[in-house]
Amino acid sequence: HLEDEGEMKEANTLQEYVEGRYPSGKSIGRLYDMELSVFNDRLEADVRASGTVAFMSSQLLSEEPVQHTFMHDLDSLLWVLVWLVAVRAQEDNQHNANSLREEVYSSDDSFKYSFVNISERARSQMARIIDPADTEWEHT
Q1: Which of 8, 21, 81, 88 has the fewest CB atoms below 10 angstroms from its CB?
Q2: pTM for this model (two decimals)
Q3: How far out from the chain centre does Cα 138 lie?
Q4: Taking a C-beta distance cutoff of 8 angstroms, is the pair 59, 80 a contact?
Q5: What is the per-residue pLDDT across 104-122, written as a single tens digit (0 to 9) for each?
Q6: CA distance 15 to 119
Q7: How is the chain split into domains, by residue range?
Q8: What is the C-alpha to C-alpha distance for residues 54 and 101, in angstroms, rounded to an integer?
């Protein structure tokens, strides 16, 4: 929905949404997730999952029915943080960062499951992306 002089109006296309949300065309970043968008008036039973695949919990991506809990939301936050690290990778590490982003965006839950449950795998993948000499991450 778009706000128009205090009233809400529906955007029918992605372009209408973008123009309504960012009228000046300026923003720091944008995240669009139209492939899993749902209508507000849909029945809860009509939707198995919604959200950006890259940031969804591995359990919600699995074929088995799962009741959504706050832990899935925390899992999603982890994937947002992993994504942020990957997009901030230094130029030398872009190949590794691109590879990680592709795996995170996959709807196959096996990568996310092993990343979360095998800490050594997560550590080694993140170490290939984060440059220890990069001081931009440090708070001064």
Answers
A1: 8
A2: 0.53
A3: 24
A4: no
A5: 777 777 788 888 888 887 7
A6: 41
A7: 1-30, 36-127
A8: 8
> Which residues, in sequence order, are CB contacts of 58 under 8 Å at separation 6+?
75, 109, 112, 113, 116
Record the tokens describing residue 101, joined without a space: 């982003």
Of the candidates 139, 103, 107, the one whose C-alpha atom is nearest the C-alpha of residue 122 is 103
Cα gap 81→94, rounded to integer Å = 17
Segments in the chain forming alpha helices (H): 14-21, 58-61, 70-87, 94-105, 109-117, 119-127
Among the listed residues 93, 115, 119, the one whose alpha carbon sits nearest the alpha carbon of residue 104: 115
Q: How far apart are CA 25 and CA 18, in angstroms?
A: 8
pLDDT over threshold 80, residue 12: no
The contacts of residue 18 (CB under 8 Å, 6+ apart) are 30, 32
Tell me the three state secondary structure of residue 3.
strand
What are the two backbone dihedrals, phi and then psi, of residue 18, each rounded to the nearest 5 degrees? -60, -45
Tokens 């190949």, located at residue:
95
- Token pair listed for 7: 């009233």
